[in-house]
Specification:
The protein is mainly beta. It has a single domain (about 5-69), classed as SH3 Domains (SH3 type barrels, Roll). It is built from no helices and ten strands. Strands 6-3-10 form a three-stranded antiparallel β-sheet, with no helix packed on it. The chain starts with a strand and ends with a strand.
C-alpha cells in the first residue's frame, strides 16, 4: 500500500510534511495554519490518512492536505 501526499509523492514512516490548507480540528478550538511543518508522521491502515502529534495532541490528518517537506 502506497501512501501519497497531495502532489503524488510517496510518504513513509517518520517523514516530515507541510500543511497546504488551514485546518480546523473537530472538537477543539485549535486551527492548524497552512505551512506548519509536522515531523515524524506515522502511517495508518488507510492510504488517505496519517497519524501525527501536533502541539501535544494526537491527530489523524487526510493526506490530500499535506505535502512532503
Amino acid at each position: 500500500m502506497d501512501v501519497k501526499d497531495s502532489n503524488g509523492t510517496i510518504l513513509s514512516e517518520g517523514d516530515s510534511v507541510t500543511l497546504t490548507k488551514d485546518l480546523k480540528v473537530k472538537g477543539s478550538s485549535i486551527t492548524l495554519k497552512r505551512g506548519k511543518v509536522i515531523k515524524n508522521i506515522r502511517l495508518t491502515s488507510s492510504p488517505e490518512e496519517i497519524d501525527c502529534r501536533v502541539d501535544g495532541s494526537n491527530l489523524v490528518l487526510k493526506t490530500c492536505f499535506l505535502k512532503k517537506a
